[in-house]
Amino acid sequence: MGLNLFQKICEAHDLNYQDDELAIIPDQVLTHDGTATPVYLQLEAIGIKKIKPFTVTYADHNTLQAGFRNADDHLYLKAMAAKLGAVFSKPGNGICHQVHLENFAKPGLILAGADSHTPMTGAMGMLSIGAGGLDVAAVMAGEPFFVKTPQVVGVKLEKKLPPWSAGKDVILYLLQRLSVKGGVGKLFEFFGPGTDALSISDRATICNMIAELGATSAIFPGDRVTRQFLKSFGREKDWQALNADADATYAEVIDIDLSTIEPLIALPEATVGKGEIEPRGERDGSDQCLHRARF
Asked: Which residues have CB under 8 Å from 51's CB, separation 6+?
């Protein structure tokens, strides 16, 4: 029996994906100024002298300079990163998920991040999971990150997106089908011929917003699209082929014909019927509804 991407990454990291819980030692850690300050305070309290995994701390969320607080936080994070051996990304470099995707993400690695949208680097064939600050502090101190083993849902993509549709519409379509709770305890693994037609930007949007389904993570293969993206950033050496086996199995398979995906908009329920927007689907209890956009 073949292996899917999640199982291959688990095996490469000596993790038994048949266990109910995984004790993960991540290859990389991501923090940002919205979460990193308490993380470093906790590390100081523990008495850590050196961060174990490769870690990047981004100053990107709290960049408003209306007072001294954010600037002081950034100085503290810069100093602690230098002291404990982390990479510091200064304000203005860009949003952490995009910068990490472009500079550090690699197929086959595991990333733990103190942010719910950490799965974005799954676009590069990387198992990426968001966590709480204390969990991330423990990981940075060299301890394992405990995660309930997710069910792996295969999403088979066929054909390609029509004009005006993008990766954002694919994830909104999944939200329409599954609701904001439809991904709890699950990892979504995308495969099939339709993946070749999605750029890394499209894949990144899908993986970033997989958190809106309550999912553990999402992942795409490390394929020619991934290789070309890395090459464009001078990082082709970081590429490795990573694909699910042809006979890989999943707990569930969702089929999506990309050619049928229309541009969608997520709006609060209260706005339905008040503009040139045609409702799609029914209310799912999340106070949001998906609608077809009229151009």
From this structure: 29, 43, 84, 85, 86, 140, 141
